[in-house]
Amino acid sequence: MVIPLLDAIAIQGKTITVDALLTQRKFADYVVNRETEYHFTVKNNQPTLRQDSALFFENRQEPDFTDIAPPDHGRIETRKIWTTTALNSYLDFPHVGKAFVIERESIEKKTGEHSHEVVYGVTSCTPEKANAAKVLKTNRECQSALKSIHLTASNNVQQVCKVILFLAPFYAA
Known about the structure:
This protein is an alpha+beta fold. Helix content is 28%, strand content 28%. Strands 3-4-5-6-2-1-7 form a 7-stranded mixed sheet, with helices on both faces. It is globular, with a radius of gyration of 16 Å. The C terminus is likely disordered.
């Protein structure tokens, strides 16, 4: 696991952002015990956590925040986020400060091709530390970082860490 790698890094006061692969209870405990926050994507490797989140957000109303990205890179993107603290004590996952769902819509300007994606997540950050706009920004920055790095068999440990971890200062502001 990645814990031995993090033991050598000063992470106190940061936000550890990972994709679903590391959305694990043991890792959440480790992060919080290191006086750090987490921002985790929830997928089917945590089926109960994902199902509970999906059920709660099934009939969502107006989003807590909407971000319409400038139409650069040949596409128009809209991201919406809904957050809740109502699931904090219900979810079988440690240190949840809020759960969230993000809906991404993208339209390719040249082709008109439309894509739609729904992503669930949890963060240990409380609403006082991270409003919906900050959670959405953290998620977007993490996804951008993950997409920009391609792993090969020759990558070293430091490069692998860059892919699976994104130390975000966004919640500190």
